[in-house]
Predict the structure.
Amino acid sequence: MTKDNSLNFYSIFKWVIIISFVVYAVFPFLWLVLASLKTNAELLDNPFKLPKVFQFQNYSNAIQEAGLIQLIINSLVISTCATFLNILFASMCAFAIARHIFWWKNVLFLMITAGILVPLNALIIPYYAIINFLNLYDTRLGLILVYCAVGLPVSTFILTEFFKGIPKEIEEASYLDGCNFVARYFRIMLPLALPGLATAGTFQFILCWNEFIYAMLLTSSTEIRTIQFGISYFTNEFFSDYVGMFAAVVVSILPSITVFVLFQERVITGLTAGSVKG
Amino acid sequence: MKIKKDEVGWLLLFIAPTLILFALFFILPILFLLASSFTNWDGIDAEFVGFENYIKLFNKKSFIRAITNNLYWCITAAIITVPLALIIALLLSHRSRGWKVFRTVLFVPQVVSSAAIAMLWAAVFNAEYGLLNFILDNIGLSDYKNHNWLGNVRTANAALIGFSLCYVGYFMVIMLAKTASISEDYYDAANIDGASQIQKDLYITAPIIKSTFFLCVILAVIFNLRQFEYVYLMTAGGPANKTQVLVVYIWNELTVQRLGRGSAAGVIMIALGAMLLLLLRRLLKSETYN
């Protein structure tokens, strides 16, 4: 009998905690979506009341006045290019480290992965100077290079661990059949490593899409501004048009949530890869 | 695989892009930061000034405030967020109904950008239309009607750190993954011995995920040392520098072109990070031997 009671207490405790954190995680977002469909006057009223008419024009206003489409395209182009380059470079390096024996490979691997621990935001002044020196200030290429570089330690780490897990026999067989270094990478390892590439790529894409400080640091013109930096302008641009700001925030959130929902398992495997080592 | 002589070139070529970018965006900036921290560089001229930047920084109240605030962020995350994440991971680890859904829902805020989260919570804390004041007003705490959470010297820091503490999804997923790797045999054996759920958590699961827990503590400290977006977008370090953190401080130095001083602040931030990591390793290592 006592056991049953403790079990009940345990499950009540469990559900209270889980539900309250779920509410905490979801509730502000729901409120945001609801508020983005109201008029500014209704906003000051009861926050839980549904609006009389759903104001979908808040979204079209935000999209037009703030040039949201342009911001989204910029973010997409920059994030996609940076992710592609990052995964290409990291997988090449990871292939070299994970599948070959040379005396300095452990030093190299340690050095690159130690980059995960560097608090990169401390380096904004040198980044600003380096990008200016390379004449890449206020260009898409500048942001792409920086995003590609800051994600390299994590991507190299995830991919090296993944490559190590692929059986050696397949590669050795292809080696005996006369596959050279490049062919082994492109034709044997990359196809086998697709899940690993997807994991690292999802991480990298979300990192690029959500990045704020370098976008603010390294760009100034509206034509290449990314969405994260773009939405932070809303408070000034719209003055008291809060609902427009909310609509813009909702639009900016949607792509990363979509990518996450599509590639959920990959994100979670990526986090696991990190923790198994730890 | 051993490297054949004629493949050494390919090997180097494969490593080169990563190595060059790493040198350009990790090694060079750190050296650059160190060098410019001893100058009065303003974007045009730079003269060697020795330790002047460091001395000036440590005499500034707002800079000391930034360091202590960063320590608050790190410590509260390590002693509140990570243990909360552990509790939720343990609760979900029994694979009860719908655990995957809960895992997803709790993780979603982690994939939303910090900029969007900052703007969302700035709205929640807003004095006029904010959600928080409405709720407080309705449960009878009408003192807080029109209270400006982020603009008030007393509540700004607590509001900022407070709301971010409860986003546990990231650490929860890491620890949950570790619990999934524990063999079911242990629990079967415990069931035969008549162990309760709490006993199983305490004596089987907890010791195994200890190392993962420590990893999460280290990650929490690094993440919070980098804190920028929440503070910059919600209070910009104000009111009266009350919520200042290191990165915002560096940013402000950058915008007034005091690049030498800002670099010195950057060096101090990296040194602080290294010290915290060493300290944690020490603490956690002695813990594992006990």
